[in-house]
Design brief:
Elements: E1 5-16, E2 19-31, E3 36-40, H1 47-55, E4 62-67, E5 70-71, E6 79-82, H2 94-105, H3 111-124, H4 140-152, E7 158-162, H5 170-187, E8 190-195, H6 198-204, E9 207-211, E10 219-224, H7 233-236, H8 240-264
Parallel strand pairs: 3-8, 3-9, 6-7, 7-8
Antiparallel strand pairs: 1-2, 1-4, 4-5, 9-10
Helix pairs in contact: 2-3, 2-4, 3-4
The chain binds adenosine-5'-diphosphate (ADP) and magnesium ion.
Length: about 260
């Protein structure tokens, strides 16, 4: 059996000019393989900090992250990240941007084969026809599709997404949410999505992990989302369970994320 991704008693303390800032404290979650999980909380509560520690880009001050029962000690090809900004290399085409990741994951492939692979992933995200274009020639949504193709080209077991749709207009955001859902339906690889968008979290997730407000943010509430799959916006938004869950999430964000902190203090 594949072991879950475990985050155990994660604590992150930043040294700042005004003293130590304990952003997250004793944050623990266990994510079974194949689950689509969202990390939801107010801006600044520490979501990106948790995700970047899961990605191995930052070190935990205490506690840690285990993959396959082993503690991670840095980034790994099995964990791919997509950020809010597509961060493509501007002088490279869409295809070349993806090829860089293919080359990283499979350095022994010939250049032609790397190109073929890159195009395969661009096709998966629906933008094969933009392969030769430079990022500046592409819309924000298409650039973000390139970033998703680049992440997928690593064939990661874990897709870590940090507000990947945050900069998009709402129609493009819907399209990309559906793309990520379709991709997930096909391969069921583990996804951890950081978001502060309640409806986004409800629409895509198997489980929502609500974070309390920082400092010393923790897991405040874990909500399983048993809406039927595959999901589409129309049926989800007419489901009574969706409204019940939405009210519960909003209630937490409005009242309990702070109260919880005060009680814990
Ligand atoms: N490198 C850093 N040094 C000092 N403080 C930081 C650093 N990174 C994040 N923080 C602080 O940690 C808190 C949480 O940040 P972040 O994880 O980005 O929140 P979120 O992603 O939920 O918006 C914020 O108060 C932020 O100012
Ligand atoms: Mg963030």
């Amino acid at each position: 059996m594949i072991k879950p991704l475990e985050v155990t008693s994660l604590t992150k303390v930043f040294d700042t000019p005004t003293g130590k800032n304990t952003v997250v404290k004793d944050f623990s979650i266990s994510i079974p393989a194949g689950q689509f999980v969202s990390l939801l909380g107010h801006s600044g509560c520490g979501k990106s900090t948790v995700l970047s520690i899961m990605a191995g880009l930052q070190e935990a001050t205490f506690g840690g992250v285990c993959v396959d029962g082993r503690e991670i000690s840095g980034p790994g090809l099995e964990r791919a990240l997509v950020f809010q900004s597509p961060s493509l290399l501007p002088w490279f085409s869409a295809e070349e941007n993806v090829m860089l990741a293919v080359a990283q994951a499979r350095p022994k492939l010939s250049r032609n084969e790397q190109r073929r692979q890159a195009n395969h992933y661009l096709e998966m995200v629906g933008i094969a026809e933009y392969a030769k274009q430079l990022p500046a020639q592409l819309s924000q949504g298409t650039q973000q599709r390139v970033a998703i193709a680049r992440a997928l080209s690593l064939e990661p077991r874990f897709l870590l997404l940090d507000e990947p749709f945050g900069m998009l207009d709402s129609i493009t955001r819907f399209e990309l949410q559906d793309l990520v859902l379709d991709l997930w339906e096909k391969d069921r690889r583990t996804v951890v999505l950081v978001t502060h968008d309640v409806d986004e979290a409800l629409y895509v997730s198997d489980r929502i992990i609500l974070m309390t407000d920082g400092p010393e943010a923790q897991v405040g509430l874990e909500l399983p989302i048993h809406l039927p799959r595959p999901r589409d916006r129309r049926s989800v938004s007419s489901n009574a369970e969706y409204f019940r869950l939405r009210a519960q999430v909003i209630d937490f964000l409005e009242h309990h994320s702070k109260q919880f902190q005060e009680k814990a203090a």
